[in-house]
Design a protein that fits this description.
single chain; 255 residues; mainly alpha; two-stranded antiparallel sheet; 2 strands
Length: 255
């Protein structure tokens, strides 16, 4: 939490947002290695260290990310389309638990306001008949898409996985060793706590209760980490998930 609190403190200073986020990325990449600089065994098990900021490449991790994406993404797309078709028609009953919790916080009404703005451009065409890529992906003759992939992987997904799964979850497992296997992966309280801190950390950049929903994909990232044995599995799946969401948003809510 100290990392996120530090990021929040930087938000009080007159610094450019990009510079603050760059500091957060640097903390995710380099702080775990510094913490483990004299512990070679943990560096090996956590797949991080001061001399190896990027985890060692693993083809097995890539295959796991691809396989889980092939299963999860079609289900997610269908759920996304059905969810926003309902929400943008004004039926918010499915969000009742979330809005109730939000009503207990200083951000009451924020989710409904956000959805109201989002649904103003809702495209009710049968999706995905009309695919649309985010406008910034088409910049520079299409090179914007290459940049988007690089940013999602190396500036968002990979540093977050290095910190939350590679370091935090692994360290917590030494305190709370997993006592059961779930679909072949040893998971326990450490994965839950690391996923919860991952979700809470998302509130620092944008104080919306709905961002706590990142807890659920974080559990899947944790499972991928332990099932594949490579940080590249959750990192690649994480990046692909963010890129898919960008396409879904652009296709469902065109500018």
């Amino acid at each position: 939490m100290a990392v996120y609190l530090g990021y929040g403190v930087l938000g009080l200073l007159p610094l450019p947002a990009d510079l603050r986020y760059l500091a957060l990325i640097a903390a995710f990449y380099f702080l775990p290695g510094l913490m483990l600089r004299n512990d070679l065994e943990r560096q090996r098990r956590y797949q991080i260290g001061p001399d190896r900021v990027i985890p060692p490449w693993s083809g097995i991790g890539a295959r796991w990310a691809l396989g889980i994406g092939a299963v999860v993404f079609p289900i997610f797309v269908v759920g996304f389309v059905l969810f926003y078709a309902r929400i943008c028609e004004g039926d918010l009953r499915v969000l009742a638990p979330v809005t109730w919790v939000e009503g207990l916080t200083p951000w009451a009404g924020g989710l409904e306001h956000y959805l109201s703005r989002l649904c103003r451009t809702y495209a009710a065409d049968p999706w995905p008949v009309h695919w649309r890529l985010p406008a910034d992906w088409l910049a520079y003759g299409g090179l914007g898409g290459v940049l988007a992939v690089a940013v999602e992987l190396f500036a968002i997904a990979l540093p977050e996985e290095v910190f939350h799964r590679g370091y935090l979850m692994s360290a917590l497992e030494e305190r709370w060793p997993p006592r059961r296997r779930i679909l072949g992966a040893p998971l326990g309280l450490a994965a839950v706590v690391a996923s919860l801190l991952f979700a809470v950390g998302h509130l620092v950049g944008m104080a919306e209760v709905a961002r706590l929903a990142t807890f659920f994909p974080a559990l899947l990232f944790s499972w991928l980490w332990r099932r594949s044995g490579s940080l590249w599995a959750p990192a690649l799946f994480h990046a692909a998930s963010n890129l898919l969401m960008a396409v879904l948003i652009a296709s469902t809510f065109p500018p």
